[in-house]
Design goal:
82% of the residues lie in helices and 2% in strands. A two-stranded antiparallel sheet has the order 1-2. A hairpin with a 2-residue loop joins β1 and β2. α2 runs antiparallel to α4, α4 runs antiparallel to α5 and α6 packs parallel to α8. The radius of gyration is 20 Å and the shape is globular. It is a multi-pass membrane protein. Keywords: Cell membrane, Membrane, Transmembrane, Transmembrane helix, Transport.
Length: 223
């Protein structure tokens, strides 16, 4: 059931990334966040009920609630325009747990260690953007960087992983871990490049809209 949840999370991250780069409206993404968030709460609950308190299963399952609450909360923010600062600080807690699981997985599952590290970066970005209100890192627009980071890595770290795990295909070699780390580094660099481009295009569009509004305001218009 946990792997089924991963299938859904990938598309939620992808669509939320598109929101951050201005392709999808926040309200347009809200239903998906609510659906995925609900699934990420219901499915882990079923797993825990069936586990009879078995420690390994509990430890592997309970973090799913952190992500489920993320999507539910974010969906409510998008619908009701709630102050996102609380969500941002909550994201710092999720990032810390993800980092802990990344460190714990290095020796046994290096690929998933990289995936946990990727999620830690994503939720750290949410914290920096929404909790601290920091929108720039040098010349890079963090909102657009976060968006592209989610677009590029949401499906590979979640949906693809879920498909591989459901079909019993999962690499655990050190070479696979290094390959996953290289992919993470490449996606981060590409996200920075795309962020600069999309932020610049967005600024240009805003400038055009302002110029058009100014022109319309300064010239008599037909009734």
């Amino acid at each position: 059931m946990g792997n089924v949840g991963l299938l859904l999370v990938g598309v939620a991250l992808f669509v939320n990334g598109l929101v951050s780069v201005g392709v999808v409206s926040p309200r347009g993404a809200a239903p998906l966040n609510l659906f995925v968030g609900a699934a990420q709460v219901v499915l882990p609950t079923l797993v825990l009920v069936q586990s009879a308190g078995e420690p390994t299963t509990v430890n592997a399952t309970w973090p799913s609630y952190l992500f489920g609450f993320t999507y539910l909360w974010f969906g409510f923010i998008q619908i009701f325009d709630i102050d996102p600062r609380g969500f941002g600080w909550y994201s710092s807690f999720v990032a810390a747990i993800a980092l802990l699981y990344a460190v714990r997985s290095i020796g046994t599952d290096p690929v998933f260690a990289v995936i946990w590290a990727t999620w830690a970066i994503m939720w750290t970005l949410f914290f920096v953007l929404l909790g601290l209100g920091v929108t720039k890192a040098g010349r890079v627009d963090l909102g657009h960087f976060t968006g592209w980071f989610l677009v590029l890595l949401g499906v590979p770290t979640c949906t693809l992983s879920g498909l591989l795990l459901l079909n019993g295909i999962w690499p655990t070699s050190a070479y696979a871990g290094l390959s996953a780390l290289a992919l993470l580094a490449f996606a981060a660099v590409l996200s920075a490049v795309l962020a600069q481009r999309s932020a610049r295009e967005g600024a240009d569009e805003s400038a055009v809209e302002v110029a058009q509004a100014t022109a319309v305001g300064g010239v008599p218009q037909p009734a």
